[in-house]
């Protein structure tokens, strides 16, 4: 819950203090957004599973934090908070100021950057780090395609939870 608040707080403050309208993607997604979200979920789940197969069990044990219902809920809320910040707030502002390509690129790279400590834990986790960077770009694309961050938030939460379940 704390991570959800920390990731969502900048967006909330920005929305309360803004002078010009900015689209942060909190509205209803276009119908095809959920179709793309389902496809993206399957692709990312398979990629995550494949890159984690060669990772030693002791390394996996260090990365898996959720083993209870509350742990899974915390993972889901963190994912939604990250989506609100990266795809809603950050991508929304950059896209409005420049263009969608710039918004997707900047938020995707920064999203990858926050996951760098995971890659630094063990060399076997570098492929997972690369998948997470690609996920940032894919989620940004999904936010543009659906005109909402909610399909991406659902995918992000589901990937976090399902990957953790595969690892337990």
From TrEMBL:
Q: Name one GO molecular function term.
A: metallopeptidase activity
Q: Name one Pfam family in it.
A: Rce1-like
The domain of life is Bacteria
| Chain ranges passing through the membrane | 35-52, 148-167
Q: Which residues form the CAAX prenyl protease 2/Lysostaphin resistance protein A-like domain?
A: 67-161
The UniProt keyword set, sorted, is: Hydrolase, Membrane, Metalloprotease, Protease, Transmembrane, Transmembrane helix
Gene Ontology annotations of biological process type: CAAX-box protein maturation; proteolysis
The name this protein goes by in its record:
CPBP family intramembrane metalloprotease
Q: Which organism is it from?
A: Corynebacterium phoceense
